[in-house]
């Protein structure tokens, strides 16, 4: 059977007849071919007779449970996407199912749009030819990468690019929103490279004063400017034979960009106030949370430098686009802060985990980590409950509905969504602006434009 047909074939495995028939009706209306099984053995028998692209699998079933069926499916049908279903969600189950190779999981009772969204995600993965890794590969992404948590197909693709980039000396450009882990990726590339025993020198381009940046990078000779009382070796010299990481490179001035371009091209530089050229053997990695192509159009970034940097581009997806990794990340941070604080927080309640998974995380993984750290500092107890979460996560009021009985214009949809976010944040504009991905001034303009309510 052609692979395109496989993506339309779904097997639903659940011991509850109402669940099986309900899911089958929803997916059949989308033109998918759906078959059902009431237990694990019946499911395996069906898989042995014909291929299925997607399996929706209940965890708790009489006889063979869903976790055992999942392990057998990953072993015998590695290209099949499995979505776990459970009415008894725990962080342990969620983490274990994803470690064993499940694409994601659904918590009963679930909404139709949640089901449709996950099945669409699974179909897109199959169409793109993304092969779900076996459990061994999932559990240990490899040396240098083990500090980065993620089992989603998007992160598996990132791991693959890291492995391919590491052995080379080509420049790497890592893009992604703030808090997605760009420096972790840069360090992983360094640790997997032949330069791993040399220096890794990170520079936050947004934190350095422009007037001192050139001296910091290139160093200076004694007397080259007022205050240069002695010769100073720059960061490039410190990084020689190692890896130099420009964090948020879009913050460099055009003047420094021009000098950096020359360093990349000629692999040599001069200290401020010196005419002596110093040979340089470094690997350069850069990151940006800004779209550099837009910066080029705005005249804020050199196009020739962009092409020099983006020989090997790696894009990190925001956490909201890989929220199936949230249980793994929560588990990872719980273990980290248990060890750091000598506590034994056992896990997260199903309700709290669902709230964490539903939140949009504008600050990405960094915001999630800070949330867990805050809970360890401010809260007691050995299980994280909804009341332990920040109010902007736990007090989300309802779900935003896109569809209505009549068509909505784009402005009507925008107005409704902004109103929904304002209600969710109880009118806190800065918080709402972060979630919406706009600045506070733009949000204020839209509130006036649509005459929105802002107080609750």
Write the CATH homologous superfamily of the largest domain: P-loop containing nucleotide triphosphate hydrolases
Structural class: alpha/beta
Strand content: 5-15%
Spans where pLDDT lies below 50 across 5 or more residues: 130-142, 401-405
**What is the average of the pLDDT values?**
82
Fill in the CATH topology of the largest domain: Rossmann fold
Which bin fits the share of residues in helices?
40-55%
- What is the total domain count? 4
Tally of DSSP helical segments: 21
Give the overall silhouette. Answer: globular
Q: What can be said about the biggest beta sheet?
A: 5 strands, parallel
The total strand number stands at 16
Query: Strands of the biggest beta sheet: in what spatial order?
Result: 2-1-3-4-5
Secondary-structure arrangement, i.e. CATH architecture of the largest domain: 3-Layer(aba) Sandwich
* Main CATH class of the largest domain: Alpha Beta
